[in-house]
Amino acid sequence: MTPLDLDRAHVVSIPMRVPFRGVTEREALLLEGPAGWGEFSPFSEYDDAEASRWLAAAVEAAHVGWPAPRRLSVPVNATVPAVAGDDVARVLARFPGCTTAKVKVAQSGQLLRDDVDRVAAVRSLLGPSGRVRVDANAAWSVDEALTALTALAPFDLEYAEQPCATVPELVSLRTALARAGVDVLVAADESVRKAEDPRRVALAGAADVVVLKVAPLSGVARALEVAVSCGLPVVVSSALDTSVGISAGVALAAALPDLPYACGLATTGLMASDVADLLTVDGALPVRAVVPDPDRLTALAASSERRAWWLARARRCAALLGD
Predict the structure, then answer these.
(1) 66 φ, ψ (degrees, to nearest 5)
(2) Does the annotation count 194 as an active-site position?
(3) Which domains can be identified in the chain, with CATH numbers?
(4) Catalytic one among 213, 296, 307, 313?
(5) Cα dist. 53→3, 213, 276 in Å?
(6) Catalytic residue, candidates 26, 104, 174, 307
(7) Rounded distance, CA 281 to CA 118, Å?
(8) What is the pTM of this model?
(9) Exposure b/e, 119-130, CB count within 10 A at least 16 = b
């Protein structure tokens, strides 16, 4: 199979246990090549130019391979969607051994008190030694972020991920937090992966931590370059991938010189099924190749219409990538 030969690709559709980023069915196109398996699963709202980076990452995984690992396992965090506080225990039970939790906040249609209740429940369940981080997905203005993080700071946050949308807003927020005496670190996610020059976030003083996802940065090798050049602590996260895509994130985390934080790679627990088993053991994922189960590929196969949609999208993105 060559990078442009998609006839043998598999397109799967996996139900979510709970909606996540508005997604109720996670779809992905999986490629097999001489180096292993790769995943192409950009969200449907992304245009072809942005989605082509995800295809580059899939081709790298299937046909090129990844840098040598520096560690044999990668610590991971639990991910808590925007559920009610009473449902937090049920969610955390899907992440055995995890002592860090990322909590979604600023959900459309919810109020700050909902975020406080959710974060409070997580802190109570993890105890004082657990680590709690929040992710606003760029939903707040600077003033809203300052208000929200002031309310959430008493729960001893590890950091706040992408509280505002733009680099200038993140710079302003960090200044406002310092002036208010609110001790919360700021992590940049979307500001890194959507930037023409991801290093701009660090150079502008917009973040204390950078969150990197392999697929939006065109693959493990490119993401590793960004991590080293940023000069900031790195958290590797997933884009709601199947275990095939997660294995690329694990490869990046395993290749980093330093890994001070748990990574957001244990997200397959949010899905009702998966194409393979890459399971968390004692709060960590093993560094290993992932091969989908043929029976699961068949059981989770998308409809013929959705398969055609994904193949057409991949071909358009391949044309943008060229050779």
Answers:
(1) -125, 165
(2) no
(3) 10-65+294-321 (3.30.390.10), 73-286 (3.20.20.120)
(4) 213
(5) 14, 11, 24
(6) 104
(7) 25
(8) 0.91
(9) bbbbbebbeeeb
